[in-house]
Specification:
There is one protein chain. This protein is 37% helix and 12% strand. Strand 10 and strand 11 form a beta hairpin.
């Protein structure tokens, strides 16, 4: 059989369509890679190999990715009758199974994807590294002693190591983009509500969370979003429709875009590693070569010191609600001893706050969002007329495992905040943002660059990302541990 290890999902699907490779062969090859490599990575925490083989032996939907294997993150994207543990010990021990299928899982299935299992996540996805007590740490294939990022760290490690071409991810404060940066992948956070969270969730984290994928190519990211980016009837709001499929933006002319390269130090509370700055400078030069007008620029309010406090308030409220929801379905209380200290703290804060506290935080974030987003608006609308913002994705290259939690809960909170100066803002504004693997350190560690577009403008991101992929290709990069 053709070696499919490093083919992206688009290429693998084409082999199935032409009959060169069967769906069963694709799935068997991916299972073999997971069995062989995952013991070093701990990226996949639950397998569904038997179910996958039965599915490819039957009649798969004739979608654009028919027969292509993928992995689902162990948080969200529920499959009816199957477990989703959210990185927790108490759900794993209860063997609880989700009663309903998410709209997203249905779209993945209708596209023809075959699910091989679930990937490692931090407990409840509330941190930026994947080191849950329940499952142990996911390990970065570029350096097994370093973090994969989070919360989609297991998915990113699996794709970077060549186990599967694409994996489900989601993002509430950077959880698609951060692992993409740390594992050398493409990670697009779609516009708010582009991908429905139905039927169980209208919105979470005050509308900051959204689903997507991590992948090795821009064309995969675009084509997958085309099949999952559909509103479900009854969604509380929907994203602006795109003018044409995102797959058609790949290879389209970039045009003379106005690009702002971050020119403000995020402040002493945040990491600002020189390798991340170097990555951004290089990206700026590439964009100039593509014909863009590149100049310094930073949205007003991006580093407002009050932003983290208000955003954390919404996370605490949502975490408390999530835990109490699981208490209801399990029919018993979840004790603090069953939670990691970070989430026990979030629950305590969430239970203590009043409705006025919570709604006040959302009110403040609404005003703050308008200050930030105005940077992309036309001058006649009171804006500065930029098309793209370029920033580092995170504040430093992948840190060593254990760095975030060394020193206790208070230290952990400070280090989480310090590591993500650039991502969570655009979960709150709802704007699309993408991390691209445009730089590697001398030690061979990947460093991502983030591009942020105006609300609803994934088309701009895909056009530019595809052009950057052609100008500075990353497809031949291979981590130290891989299939």
């Amino acid at each position: 059989m053709t070696d499919t290890t490093w083919l992206d999902a688009t290429a693998q699907a084409e082999l199935v369509r032409t009959g060169e490779v069967s769906s069963a062969e694709l799935v068997d090859a991916a299972i073999e890679r997971v069995e062989r490599v995952n013991p070093q990575l701990n990226a996949v925490v639950r397998e569904r190999f038997d179910e996958a083989r039965k599915e490819v032996a039957g009649q798969l939907p004739d979608g654009p990715f028919r027969g292509v294997p993928m992995l689902l993150k162990d948080l969200g994207c529920h499959v009816a009758g199957e477990a989703t543990h959210y990185g927790t010990s108490f759900l794993r021990e209860a063997s609880w199974r989700w009663p309903s299928e998410s709209y997203l899982a249905r779209h993945f299935r209708s596209a023809g994807f075959v699910f091989l299992g679930r990937t490692n996540v931090p407990e409840f996805g509330t941190t930026v590294t994947t080191e849950p007590v329940a499952n142990g740490p996911a390990r970065n294939p570029y350096d097994l002693g370093r973090s994969t990022g989070g919360s989609s760290g297991g998915s990113a490690a699996a794709v970077a190591a060549g186990l599967v071409p694409v994996a489900h991810a989601n993002d509430g404060g950077g959880s698609i983009r951060i692992p993409a940066s740390e594992c050398g992948l493409v990670g697009l956070k779609p516009t708010r509500a582009r991908v429905s969270q139905g039927p169980d969730i209208g919105e979470s984290w005050a509308g900051a969370t959204i689903d997507g994928v991590v992948s090795r190519s821009v064309r995969d990211t675009a084509a997958v979003l085309d099949v999952i980016g559909r509103p479900m009837p009854g969604d509380p709001y929907i994203a602006p429709p795109l003018h044409r499929p995102l797959a058609e933006e790949v290879g389209a002319p970039v045009g003379r875009l106005r690009v702002g390269v971050l020119d403000v130090d995020p402040g002493e509370a945040y990491l600002d590693h020189p390798q991340c700055r170097t990555a951004v400078e290089r990206a700026g030069r590439l964009l100039e070569d593509l014909g863009c007008v590149v100049e310094p620029g930073t949205p007003d309010g991006m580093f407002d010191p009050l932003f983290p406090r208000f955003f954390t308030t919404t996370i605490a409220g949502d975490t408390a609600l999530t835990i109490s929801g699981f208490e209801r379905v399990l029919g018993r209380p979840v004790t603090d001893e069953e939670l990691e200290p970070r989430n026990a703290m979030y629950r305590a804060v969430g239970k203590k706050m009043s409705a006025e506290d919570y709604l006040g935080a959302r009110f403040m974030l609404g005003g703050w969002s308008r200050r930030v987003a105005a940077w992309w608006a036309a001058p006649e609308d009171g804006g500065q007329g930029f098309d793209l913002l370029v920033t580092p994705t995170v504040g430093a290259p992948p840190p060593e495992l254990g760095w975030f939690t060394a020193g206790g809960t208070e230290q952990e909170g400070r280090r989480i905040n310090s590591f993500i100066p650039y991502t969570a803002q655009f979960n709150v504004t709802g704007q699309p943002a993408i991390s691209l693997p445009l730089h590697w350190t001398d030690e061979g560690l990947p460093v991502g660059v983030q591009l942020v577009a105006a609300y609803g403008r994934e088309d701009v991101l895909v056009r530019v990302a595809a052009a950057l992929e052609e100008a500075a290709p990353w497809a031949d990069r291979r981590p130290a541990v891989s299939a």
